[in-house]
Specification:
Elements lengths: L29 H14 L3 H15 L5 E5 L5 H9 L6 E6 L2 H13 L6 E5 L10 E7 L7 H14 E14 L3 H17 L4 H11 L6 E2 H11 L3 E8 L2 E7 L3
Parallel strand pairs: 1-2, 1-4, 2-3, 4-5, 5-6
Antiparallel strand pairs: 5-8, 7-8
Helix pairs in contact: 2-3
């Protein structure tokens, strides 16, 4: 079966790691941007559930006249979910990513979306982009690519910019406290990938490419850090294998 191309309006099939290749760190470059929708759908269990629920959560917590941010917006799936969850025309929605290749395609998806709320895209580092008056912020599988010593500072900036009653949606791949659970959940994740058509070679090479730049942490670590920077409650609203999505709430 041949790969579907953008000419047909469909994303290309992810075959980036299907043949032997020299080991190198994973990068969000043009080759990844071309296949990213297929890659994340087949690699992250529950992703197709998380995205529409971001719309639901946004609608629940967005405040009139506030700013909403999608930090690490990639091709804009969570940005568009947030957009459709915002009923107020005086809100500002901002997507931030440091990959120009990702943002180019993100802009295309936003232009095709039938919605009146404008979206501002910034090609910037999420660690330094300006944040203020935030009612809803999303880090959808983004924090795990920030170096661990720098994660608290980013979360502190988000917490400081969050209005009372505002929230952070944080989706992450996590690691577990015991070797047994870690091994079990990893095995199940790999079986999920195989069920979606990835070969053992693809699974192995992707893991080798990403293990030095994506560092998972425990749920307890995420929870304690979010509370330390100023969020009052941290809830896990979704989990499938070693992937979770949390809701960090700043009480009114």
């Amino acid at each position: 079966m041949s790969n579907r191309t953008e000419d047909s309006g469909q994303p290309m099939t992810d075959r980036l790691f299907a043949t032997e290749r020299n080991p190198e760190d994973f990068r969000f470059d043009a080759s990844v941007a071309r296949v990213f929708p297929d890659m994340i759908r087949r690699s992250v269990p529950g992703y197709t559930t998380i995205i529409p629920m971001i719309e639901v959560i946004t609608e629940q917590y967005v405040q009139p006249g506030s700013n909403c941010y999608d930090l690490g917006c990639s091709l804009g799936a969570s940005t568009l979910a947030m957009r459709h969850g915002i009923p107020y025309r005086d809100c500002t929605l901002v997507g931030v990513d440091n990959s120009s290749d990702m943002l180019e395609r993100c802009q295309h998806h936003i232009a095709l979306d039938d919605h009146e709320l404008p979206v501002t895209l910034r090609c910037e580092d999420v660690q330094t982009t300006e944040l203020s008056k935030a009612s809803v912020t999303t880090l959808n599988f983004t924090l795990q690519f920030v170096e661990p010593p720098q994660r608290e500072a980013l979360l502190q900036r988000i917490a400081d910019a969050t209005l009372p009653g505002g929230v952070l949606i944080l989706s992450e791949k996590i690691r577990f406290e015991t070797d047994f659970e870690q091994d079990t959940q990893t095995c199940l994740h790999h079986e999920f990938k195989r069920a979606n058509g990835y070969s053992d070679l693809e699974i192995s090479q992707k893991r080798a490419a990403i293990e030095n730049i994506m560092i998972p942490e425990t749920l307890a670590k995420h929870r304690s850090r979010l509370q330390a920077v100023g969020f009052d409650e941290v809830l896990v609203w979704y989990q499938c294998f070693n992937f979770v999505s949390m809701l960090a709430i700043k009480k009114a």
